[in-house]
User: Fold this.
Amino acid sequence: MRAGARGRGGRQVGAGRRRRGNRRLGDYRAVRPDRERPGHRLGHQRGRLSSLPPGRGLLRRDRQLRNPPAKGAAVNVDITDARRSFRKNKAVDGVDLQLGPGVFGLLGPNGAGKTSLLRMLATVLPPSSGEIRLLDRDPRGAAARREIRRRLGYLPQNLGYYPSFTVVEFIEYFALLKEMPSAAVPKAVATAVERVDLGVKAKAKLRTLSGGMLRRVGIAQAIVNDPDLLLLDEPTAGLDPEQRVQFRSLMRSLGERATVIVSTHLVEDVGAACGEVALMSDGKIVFRGTPAELTARGEGHGVGDAPLERGYSAVLSAARLSGAQSGAVSS
Ligand SMILES: Nc1ncnc2c1ncn2[C@@H]1O[C@H](COP(=O)(O)OP(=O)(O)O)[C@@H](O)[C@H]1O
Ligand SMILES: [Mg+2]
Assistant:
């Protein structure tokens, strides 16, 4: 994967199951292109709203807001007390998050709620409650949702694909569904293919590709519109070590301008690529900080082979012990 080149265009398509009510909506939908962007953005700098008066909601916000908006700045993700239940199962159980550009790692064990949170951010899963603003817009409005989707890139955890499509056809299809101007599509597709290092397979049919290659095709469709908000659900699954190194470099490059959220349960993926990480457990964010801060949590008592892994396991077991108390955001 190449960090240097840059794709341009729109957004995503759908495969996946469609169910009704509070079930899956189908992971991908047609979206559209647009090049408008907020004038200013936030970095992932830390900051606290220490002047806030006491109160549970405010306190929780105080703990979670590490990048309070600078004057006139826009945030790409701004969610408050987002919740999503599937019957009695609280998949996402009160998450606050405010993010500007940068690479943000979402860690947590299977079932923690990472995919559900990302699906909410991708506008394919409405929250049961809470406030969600994406790219300065409220996704509850149809026009705003459409605008958000034009500027979003989303790699679902399980990306469906059409076996008889070639790599280029597949990515082009997504670009067109994202309503990119057709004149811009060929170059955007070529750039995306190049960025995931699939040039030699550009004309190969998807059915002939390995799992790792298909994952890279999935990454390519997510970045073909040069999104302002990029959501990647387990993007490194199936990639070999060399490809993972390339992927991290691509993330760093994309994160210079866009907000990139990468979910994974592979702790080492976030260490190198992410400026900041959050750890989810039982639907809640139980830690938010830099990879170095997470590593520090594991000193002396974490279980694991690598320092970051020890931090991860230390925070996770503390969260589980305390019953993952609501709003238990640390550091
Ligand atoms: N569409 C769904 N229908 C019912 N339960 C779901 C659905 N999606 C997720 N869940 C449940 O929500 C919880 C969180 O799942 P998920 O968001 O996939 O977590 P993660 O991505 O961290 O593994 C799990 O208990 C899972 O079984
Ligand atoms: Mg998941």
